[in-house]
Amino acid sequence: MRGNELKVLLGLLWLGIGSVSALAQKGTIPQRPDTDLFHFANRLMLNEGYEAAIDSLLQQAPNFTSDSASMLDKGTFYQAAMTYASFAGLNPLTLEFELKAFGKRKSEPAKLNSNAKVVPAVQYIVEQYGQEPVVMFNEAHSRGQNRAFFRSLLPQLYEKGFRCLAIETLDYADTLLQQRGYPLLNTGYYTREAAFGQLIREAIALGFEILPYEDSVKVEPDNRPFQERANAREKAQAEHLSNYLKKHPGTKMIVLAGHDHIHKTSRDEWIKMGERLCKILGRDIPSIDCTVKQEQYETSREHPVYQAVQDSFQIRIPVVLLQNDTAFYRANSPGAVDVCVIMPRTNYDYGYPDWMKSSYTSHALITIPSKPEYSGRLLHIYREEEWVKHGKQAVPVMHIDLKPGTEMLDLYLQKGQYRAIIGQGSGKSLFNKSFYAN
User: Fold this and answer.
1) Are strands 319-323 and 339-342 parallel, antiparallel or unpaired?
2) Type and span of the H or E element at 158
3) CA-CA distance, 425 to 320, in Å (whole number)?
4) Which residue of 83, 162, 224, 380 lies most exposed, with the fewest beta carbons within 10 A?
């Protein structure tokens, strides 16, 4: 899978078109897909599973990233690659593709005030905004860490009386989500990522009502200018949320959206959902950004304030930076958000990010034997009941990119029965083991 063959391919891509041409002469580059890369990978994931989607997508790299490729092709490939790498739990690869998709200037750490301090983000948010009727959060679509942090907030927000969790990415077609208690691959586009799937399981188990609020009006073909389409979507989202609140007076709501949709001010004519919802409800709604101050593939490209916080405090949990007792927020967007959560850098335990442990209280030790066919493949960890009922349509709780040799894996999970699978994409399991987390 992403073993030696893929490492060679990616290495060749860094060298440029000459190496890609050499691959083409050997006939190893697959035919360019007849649809866009997101639909291409999505179709493979739904039909063949996570591994087939990311592998086939990465094999398309020479068709989209050579020196002769257009900027549109390159941008599309790297964005699709970072998205499906995140779905497959390949966090370092996700960060690498994210950097190539969007790029970031190298920067030096900022200077913090002498009275600067950090406080745990969960504590700060609950104390500052726990009494509010509506609170908005955002997440970056390729960042499972954002979802793991939000997951850690849920119990305390529930204790504060929040009962509705509105999630942008949900598909209206999955009408049984609440009853079933867990997502499937068709529940939503981003909810197939492991940390997002676990967020939904835990929210339902706590007692939250899960609410989709995406624009439900489809225009085919949609030839409207981007800004018109974007504003129509933001307006529909705000109206769906406000209509729910009008029908359920007194219900406290948490809104989880992607990136800038929670902004309460605009710098152009694209008016975001957050600003529209504030106007409809006639009140200021706290807006909490979790996407700006976080690690990058290269530390020199991290936000200056992020670097300064890491250098000064060596944070290991999400925090809020206070300077002069005022929470730090996005200075380039005044009034857009109220506070920025600063995420710690990722450490890895047994091949998976440490933030995957968020809210997990049990663990299981399993052994993956040393077999050549296991090396470089994904180990998928499913909840046993979900795997038995739905097979590869289930959403794993974790993926691990296996290395050569025998691996002893200490998996932190919630208490319960699980299934470890290697090779589910082809329909043939190379490894299939049921185990219990105590």
Assistant:
1) antiparallel
2) helix 144-159
3) 41
4) 224
Radius of gyration of the chain (CA): 22
Decide which of 2.60.40, 3.30.390, 2.120.10, 1.20.120 is the CATH code for 360-437: 2.60.40
In whole angstroms, what is the distance from residue 231 CA to residue 169 CA? 17
CATH code of 117-347, in short, is: 3.40.50
Domain locations in the chain as residue ranges: 4-102, 117-347, 360-437
State the pTM of this model: 0.92
What would the two tokens of residue 3 be?
């073993």
Q: Which residues pair with 288 in a beta bridge?
A: 137, 339
Residue the block writes with tokens 């966090």: 91
pLDDT in tens, 111-149: 999 999 999 999 999 999 999 999 999 999 999 999 999
Question: Which distant-in-sequence residues (6+ apart) come within 8 Å of 403 by Cβ?
Answer: 351, 375, 376
pLDDT, tens digit, 9 for 90 and up, residues 376-410: 899 999 999 999 999 999 999 999 999 888 889 99
